[in-house]
Amino acid sequence: MITTTGLTKIYGADGSRGREITALDGVDLHVREGEVYGVIGQSGAGKSSLIRCINLLERPTAGTVSVAGQDLTALAGRGPRAGKELRQARSRIGMVFQHFNLLSSRTVQDNVELPLEILGRSGKERSRKALELLDLVGLADRAGAYPAQLSGGQKQRVGIARALAADPKVLLSDEATSALDPETTRSILQLLRDLNRQLGLTVLLITHEMDVVKSICDSAALMEKGRIVESGTVSELLATPGSELAAALFPVGGEAAGPDRTVVDVTFQGEAATQPVISQLSRTYNIDISILGAAIDTVGGLQVGRMRIELPGRYEDNVVPIGFLREQGLQIDVVGASDAKTALAKEAVK
Ligand SMILES: Nc1ncnc2c1ncn2[C@@H]1O[C@H](COP(=O)(O)OP(=O)(O)OP(=O)(O)O)[C@@H](O)[C@H]1O
Ligand SMILES: [Mg+2]
């Protein structure tokens, strides 16, 4: 639904002023139809630049963007004659902002009607659509209010209704919940999830909060310094040894008791259970296993369990028991020892 290839944005590349800043450095992103896709990264990683290049608010320096099968970068490159086509293509992309960007002099309803005015729709059609959308976001009774009379969460609901006015296939959200308190954040995320399901809307959201990804995303990518360093469905990420995103989505604590110990994270999804496996392991290899931490949680709608266990001896001494765990279909991740991880990754490739 959204594909970028080699997307690059260098600010100041026109040589007009100051030094060049590479905000996007060859980003390949693929968002499937109907999914909620989260991009997470620290401040300055290039998240906003990515979203602004996807809807061509910002002209990419290189690379392509296609949305719903249409190559937007090619349209933009064709100059003013393609302007109308580009405007239409962009109207199929809804955009939600951190600070709502509502017009304070207009009522809630008039704010929602704005994109339809720009598209030249009739007054009757605009008003019907706006009221329908306000109902959808739970604000049917506030159509005549002004933005200043609304709470932050209500303002964002108006922002979402406005973004949906032209029946977009795709909704882009740049930190839509960053200015909201935790409870309001939850209700806005739930609204985005509901819209995703009810309307089949594809949602690409940018955030620096792992909780946002955890609560509603089907897939996620981690951005660092203008690049995507990890990406996949939540389920794939959780099954990837050494995945930073997986560790952040589902942290489990616990430190090794001493140097001659191997600490292993055992992750399972769905129905699998670790407990019988752990006691079997202990009996089969006659080793004492300590459980350092354990948790069960719902990540991206999946039930996931993780247990951190400690085996006596170093990694080399535990290759066989670790192999046993993996044979049981459990996701195994050796913690801390980077040499051990590399060895394990090599073994996994075999
Ligand atoms: N209009 C601009 N002109 C010049 N440099 C810019 C511009 N916009 C962003 N940058 C720079 O590009 C880099 C990426 O910025 P961007 O806003 O995309 O990051 P971000 O991941 O959205 O950060 P945050 O989480 O703080 O919003 C930063 O170094 C930033 O200073
Ligand atoms: Mg930003």
Automatic annotation (TrEMBL):
Domain ABC transporter, chain residue ranges per copy: 2-250
One annotated GO molecular function: ATP binding
Regions that span the bilayer: none
Keywords: Amino-acid transport, ATP-binding, Cell membrane, Membrane, Nucleotide-binding, Translocase, Transport
Stated name of the protein: ATP-binding cassette domain-containing protein
